[in-house]
Amino acid sequence: MFKNILVVIIILVSLSFFELKLISNEFISKIQFAILPLMLIYYFFLIVYDNGQRIVSRFRIEIILIWIAVILSMFGAYYFHHQNFGITAIAQRAMYFYIFYFLLLKIKCKPELLVKTIFFISLLLIIIYLFQTIIYPHEILYSKMGYDRGTLRIFIPGLGYLVIAYFYTLNRFLNNLHYKYLIFCFAALVIFILSGTRQLLGSIFLITMINLIVSKKIKSRFAIYFISGLAIISVFYIFKDIIIELIDVTFSKGKSFKHDVRIQAVVFFMTKLFPNKLSYIIGNGVSGGHSSFDLMLEYYAEVFGYYQSDIGIFGGYSKFGILFVIANIIILARISFMRLPENYRFLRYANFINVLTILTGDVMSVLHGIVLISVMLYLIDVSKYQPKLHPE
Q1: Distance CA 145, CA 124 (A)
Q2: pLDDT tens digits, residue range 124-151?
Q3: Which of 139, 199, 357, 383 could link 361 by a cystine bridge, Cβ 3.0 to 4.6 Å?
Q4: Beta strands in the chain (DSSP E)
Q5: pTM for this predicted structure
Q6: Residue ranges of the domains in the chain?
Q7: In whole angstroms, what is the distance from residue 64 CA to residue 101 CA?
């Protein structure tokens, strides 16, 4: 029981409890600091006292590679930007949460519990997102929000869990054709559209189509195209104003490609931030503690809108260097091409979203993304360890 509660708490803590104003940021920060030593102590306790059967870790080399990149980047922050090791060690604390992957392997958490947790978190996110949309401008979240692209965009952590839950329920529907699963899929699509994120929405529709086409449960290609066409037309008419606005934004940015703030941010972080050739290998580290390095990045963020979190893998590379990028690509590639039991293939489709949004999504260097990736990697390890033990 303790193990299950701990896992749920760690996931909620990584999400900062959806950044609800009911819980202060100071309290959340303290919990995040406290949960790390708790995970470490419990992990080493299980190493000593757990004599049960071991689940093979198939991603330990990649995680260790990430940690090596993190350590090397601390020298980049110190020697290139004069930020002391203590500040960097605290600023990069999210990267230590990869220990959660190894903890899950020791806990041997049941996959059905993790899937139910993902589903429950996704359901909570849908309710909170819709409620915040309805009551706006009254805000119940600390998350950044505002009207843009024809919709109220709320930057709430946890969309990655909703992506996994969406493909899980979609595949459950394809397996037994029970329409209750379509209700959740539609609710998830509503959130994806309301988020106003073009890359995410386009990727969701593309991978959904691929999922339907390769499904062995629907034999008729006509049925696939009919269902897909009906769904697309329905969604378009319900959210016509938002979708048209997103299309207009896409074409307007395409015409002024060089003036896109995200492109300018990539150019800045890939050229101006790196002081020498060695920094391109080991990275610049994570800024923090109101050091001169931190104040410089804050200035460029506030004045020019250059955020490392907005430029995906480029942002991670600017912090942690080439080893981090290599580890990221290997993890994404292995999940994409690894053979998985049918009941776990929803993880592959969810991973395809990470691949398609790699240039804009900062999944593997933010706290909630790290914990989510750890859950995905653990579920894949479990699927290889005991294929008959599948999430229902």
Answers
A1: 18
A2: 999 999 999 999 989 999 988 888 767 8
A3: 357
A4: 145-148, 151-154
A5: 0.89
A6: 2-385
A7: 11
